[in-house]
Amino acid sequence: MGELDVRRVRPLTVSRYLGLTFPAYREFLRTHMLSPHVFAFAAHVADVPVALVLVGDLNGFGPAVRSIYVSEGHRNEGIASELLRQAEAESRSRGWKQLRAVFMGGNSSEPFLRALLSRHGWEEPQTRTHLLKLSREKIVKAPWLKRRRPLPDAFEYFRWVDLGEREKEKLIQVQRETGWPDREVFPFHYSDDFEPESSFGLRFEGEVVGWAVNHVFDEKTIRFTCSYLKEELQSLGRLVELYAQSVDRILKFTDYDFALFTVPVEYPSMVRFAERHLRPYSVESKRSFITQANLS
Known about the structure:
CATH superfamily of the largest domain: Gcn5-related N-acetyltransferase (GNAT)
Shape: globular
Largest sheet: 12 strands, mixed
Number of helices: 7
CATH architecture of the largest domain: 3-Layer(aba) Sandwich
CATH topology of the largest domain: Aminopeptidase
Number of strands: 12
Distance between the termini: 33 Å
CATH class of the largest domain: Alpha Beta
Helix content: 25-40%
Strand content: 25-35%
Number of domains: 2
Strand order of the largest sheet: 1-2-3-4-5-12-6-11-10-9-8-7
Structural class: alpha+beta
Radius of gyration: 20 Å
């Protein structure tokens, strides 16, 4: 390996590095590098970009390593460790006390990522979500899509793109003050480049009480990023209708062949729904994990 040169990614140079992060984060990299709460470092060999780490603290929900990626020809050379070291140092310089990371299990990179985080003293990863990959071909056969019970008149669907600014501010304020809902199902915890045709919200008596917000994962796949219905309004029938509405919109308004459905372990009713109504139509099942480093 030639001499390693690590540089901060500047907004005007972002296009050089889009191939060094996963498709789901390329739009994030394009749109958020001007934010003072986001930074990235890229590693170069002979002036050629070979690796990238992307870190952000958006909407006040805590800093997180969004992506760390090393091109195939330069793995096992200590580059990821150097990028993570610099990301941790930059985070400390900003006064951040903790740094989180979420990663997917069940793939070839998992053991290397676990080893990397362990060497840097990160906490033992814990299961965060169950993830099911659904195929369009299979999900259209699900009987629960046909056995529908419309929600009462007090409920109103609306496109997420039409969420009012005051409604958004109120949701963020309530979440910060009360912790409702958990940030893993809170839409503003995630990138704001949601998929507009399939993402929607739900009002009850004029108040926003639920949502299904999706993001493009790759050219063939859409991700059910977060879906939620306020606990006191939940029933199995209402949850089924919420998810059916989301699947309907994907089938009617998009051309994606697959959908990734994430289920936080903190919500047993959602886990039960996924096991009973989604797993039979899945083509793949995985888990995601969450971990953090204490930087103080």
